[in-house]
Description:
Blueprint: E1 30-34, E2 47-51, E3 57-60, H1 63-84
Antiparallel strand pairs: 1-2, 2-3
Amino acid sequence: MQTPWPPHDPAARGTALSKVMVRFPDSRAFVIQLSDETDPAARLPVGRIEHVESGLRERIASREEIWAFIERVLAREARREGECR
């Protein structure tokens, strides 16, 4: 079972899990906007995804397209970081 983050159980506050320092860099921030064509029951996302830092965006019509976009953007960012070092 996957534990939600942040823990929503008040009893979990103060535990080791809630004290974990998690970084959320801007280079890994994405926004997904779903259209009214999205069918939650079918788990079919229809809309667009945007990488916050670069402004790159694409239309999406499946979960696979969401992950493909994220993988491409993160690979692009990793290449850019490698070039800057």
